[in-house]
Design goal:
Number of domains: 2
Helix content: 25-40%
Strand content: 5-15%
Largest sheet: 7 strands, mixed
CATH topology of the largest domain: Aspartate Aminotransferase, domain 2
Shape: globular
CATH class of the largest domain: Alpha Beta
CATH superfamily of the largest domain: Type I PLP-dependent aspartate aminotransferase-like (Major domain)
Oligomer: single chain
Structural class: alpha/beta
Strand order of the largest sheet: 2-10-9-6-5-3-4
Number of strands: 16
Number of helices: 13
Distance between the termini: 23 Å
């Protein structure tokens, strides 16, 4: 039986050639391909700066550090995300709260966030982490206005949304992660994401101060600029100026990322075409596609389904490995048992009870997609 996963990487001969060339070059890590990838990715997203790191979780952790998260700090995010979106705050000793979602999109609900922020004294919260769930871009403009009003920072988790866009109040198209409204944004290059590096991540920003801090933090906190080193003693000198991490990307991974980036728009168009076929197939049921937008990047294609668990098992019996995204973070043992807070997020819990991610990747064929569609119809018939 042929297996159809919910997502997978696409590796071309051009990708293999790029990685082979990197393996034969002078640098396997810390070389020129990393800077080239950063520059190209920043250009693609529309941000001023980009910092390549080891993975999306490292990107979140370094971002939280750069934004100054520490003990006593409290941050808001969505429970409908992978746990790393919340864990990054805990890594730094901060506390995390969860606001509910908009059931039409699965995104962090702005009104719920505003109500929480305004129900506590000034300074109770330090930041907000909106997530571009499934590739649906968060409209960051109202979050920016709220953040400015209450002296908060914004960290956009755009792991699902490279190439996604929305239109702001001035009619201008804004790409997810371009820094127009968020202080920082992060991306993942896990194999099932739009751009695969094996593992890898990127942080984008328009703020030079955060950019320079991130460069320091991703490489142990080491400074090698003679002008910034006290008692500089020669070419071997360095100084440890922050307690950083070894969160660097390799040139091998950067070579693969650069190659994949060349066809990012082509793959994005293919994802949208697949989503349009699903939309048409399910317009009259038996499942309900989660809402989308013109600028949706479709990392995931999420449906809301009755008898979701039975459908999941039935599809697996047919070789279709759909997936659930996500188990709400606040219900996971670490958050549910280890932290005293109780969060009221019924819409997130209702979403989880029905959500299912169908196969979505650029190399999914129409024949395979039709097989998925017919299997779903057969289950409900």
């Amino acid at each position: 039986m042929k297996i159809i996963p919910y997502g997978k990487q696409s590796i071309t001969e051009a990708d293999i050639a790029a990685v082979t060339e990197a393996l034969q070059a002078d640098f396997l890590t810390g070389g020129p391909r990393i800077a080239a990838f950063e520059e190209a990715f920043a250009g693609y997203i529309g941000a001023r700066y980009a910092v390549a790191v080891a993975n999306g979780t490292a990107a979140l952790h370094l971002s939280a550090m750069a934004l100054g998260v520490g003990p006593g700090h409290r941050v808001l995010t969505t429970p409908m995300t992978f746990s790393a979106s919340a864990n990054c705050v805990r890594y730094c000793g901060g506390e995390i709260d969860f606001a509910d979602i908009d059931p039409a999109t699965g995104l962090l609900d702005f009104t719920a966030v505003r109500n929480l922020v305004e129900s506590f004294p000034p300074g109770y919260y330090q930041g907000i982490i909106p997530v571009d769930y499934a590739g649906y871009p968060v409209d960051m403009e109202p979050f920016r206005a709220l953040a400015d009003e209450h002296d908060l920072w914004l960290l956009e988790d755009a792991c699902h949304a490279p190439g996604a866009s929305y239109v702001d109040s001035k009619g201008q198209k804004q790409r997810s992660g371009n820094g127009a409204f968020a202080d920082l944004a992060i991306f993942s290059f896990h194999p099932v994401k739009h751009i695969a590096c094996g593992e890898g991540g990127m942080i984008t920003t328009n703020r030079k101060d955060l950019y320079e801090k991130l460069l320091l933090l991703r490489n142990h906190g080491l400074e090698r600029d003679p002008a910034k080193i006290p008692n500089y003693d020669g070419g071997w000198s360095y100084d440890l100026q922050e307690l950083g991490y070894n969160y660097r990307l390799t040139d091998i991974q950067a070579a693969l990322g650069l190659s994949q980036l060349q066809r990012a728009e082509e793959n994005l168009a293919r994802r949208r075409a697949i989503a349009a076929r699903y939309d048409a197939a399910f317009a009259a049921g038996p499942v309900r596609p989660l809402g989308s937008s013109e600028g949706h990047a479709f990392h995931l294609y999420v449906i809301l389904a009755e008898a979701r668990k039975a459908l999941y098992e039935y599809l697996r019996s047919k070789g279709i490995f759909a997936q659930v995204h996500y188990i709400p973070v606040h219900t996971l043992s670490y958050y549910h048992l280890s932290l005293p807070e109780v969060w009221n997020v019924p819409l997130s819990e209702a979403h989880y009870a029905q959500c299912l991610s169908l196969p979505m990747y650029p190399t999914l064929t129409e024949e395979e997609q039709d097989y998925v569609i017919e299997a779903i119809r057969a289950f409900y018939s």
